[in-house]
What does this fold into?
Amino acid sequence: MGGVFRSPGAFATANRAKIAASWAASGRVRAARLLFETSKGWSLAVAAFAVASAVFPILVLVALGLVIGDLPGAIRQGMSSAGGHRLELALAFACVAYLANLLLGPGQDVLTLVVRSHLRDDLQGRLMAAVSEPVGVAHLEDPALLDKLASARGQLLNVLPSDAPVTLALVLSNRLTGLLACVTVGWFRWWLGLGMLVVWLLVRAPLRAAQRGQVAHYRGGRDVFRRSYYLLGTAVGSNAAKELRVFGLSDWIVGEYGQQWAKAIEIFHGGRMRFIRRFLFLFAPVLLAYLGGGAAVAWAGFHHEIGLGEVTVLLGMLITTSQVGAVGRYDLALEQMVTALPDVDDLESELRGRTAALEGTRPAAGLPEREVRFERVSFRYPRSDAEVLRDLELVVPVGRSTAIVGLNGAGKTTLVKLLSRLHDPTAGRIVVDGIPLSELEPGSWQRQVSVVNQDFTRYPLTAAENVGFGAPAHLDDEAGIIAAARHAGALEFIEALPLGWDTVLSRDYTGGADLSGGQWQRVALARALFAIRHGARVLVLDEPTAWLDVRAEAEFFDRFLAITAGATTIVISHRFSTVRRAEQICVLDGGRIVEQGTHGALVASGGRYAGMFLAQAARFAAPEASQ
It folds into this structure.
């Protein structure tokens, strides 16, 4: 029996638990917690200003009513009379209340600006940390997660979730003002104050439901908003500026943005019209309540049941009671903000989970000492049925140069991602000196692999930083940075820059300078060599010169192999003629290694490598023969 029936106290405890759980899940509680966790001092200041902003408008209305109420007596009796003294006191009270209310506005604006800035910095820092935490890149290739990221950054609904705490304070201040107005009205006519409060409480729930539906409708078009912002950023940015103009794409991108934004406006309009229809339906009883309340005040005043001062206070307060339940722009903005706030928490939780899912705690420093082995490795990208790599077998010996060649789309770059542990294989395993790569601490292993990608990053920072980022902990190693640049053939043009090593490598900044494609390529190589200087054991070139002609690429690889002799290097290329000096050449085709050996042995065997090599050589030689 005791397991079936519970005491009233038990029911109360259970109900409190449900209420607490409900509030804990509320976006508004998240917003308040965000502010409190960021700064308890700012929380108290915002709360104090919110209460003051709610109280002082009420005091101003009361003071105005007192002045108007005392004005006739002072006129009849003179300012030296008791009525005149009351008017003076009322005027003094009104002046103080009005000035306090007047000064409160700028103070609150300054506080709002400071707190919002503080919260934005904090939230942006959290997002950066969350997105940067996983050692892999799979999360940056996940559309659903990118939608959440865009929402958390305020790019979908054009509001910043970090503004939610301050906006919540403004909304709650308005609610408190409305509640105090109802109490004040009830002080004179209890049934009128209670009636207005009840009407707004009845209407408030469906209004909020309509508002949530409006925001949900907006979020349903997240892909449209994200594409619109992408097109806008592409049109006004510098990355694509040259191609947009050279290919005459400016009109296209402007038109495409117009079409996408028209879809976004249609989504906005659809959500807004749904809300307006619900609002108009709910407005009817509210309008009747105000007409009835105004008529009751006018009747009482006309029949001298209340004085002129009371009429003034009641009419002003009657209008102000709307703030207890009315929905305005701050309410809609708050709903959008608190709807996006869970995306921040979800991102942190999901990315933390992805990081935790990457197993491996063994230190990787000093590895590999013998070899890196791919054992029946297969890989497919998320939400794809096509295997990029399939049962791949490969051994990369330490201290030797290995070239991996294959046609475009053969899976060469994917292989580098797996070696760098930016992704894990979907089947098979990678073994380092007999230790499964999955057992090594991911970040530690990545410090052992230095990669020059085909789309290497051009940091808009100083030349020294662009090279030193190969080993950020050793940016103070000036001699090492200079040596890496010298080996890569970058020292001469870097020292010739306007500010030498301190020159920012971007024309977007005062005193900055840009480099040619070939110069940038050498800076990227210097960055990789600097990483080798500070502990990296494997150096990978992933087609960083794919846009060069075959002679320039051959010269680059010759230099690379010369300065890295005796190191463990992997060269990825789709051009067979440029890697002939590698000690081991592996042919990747259809996700597998189909041939491997030295250049001479592979050509002599007459297999696939020989056929592709001769075909490419003939294609490059043809223009020379025609000259």
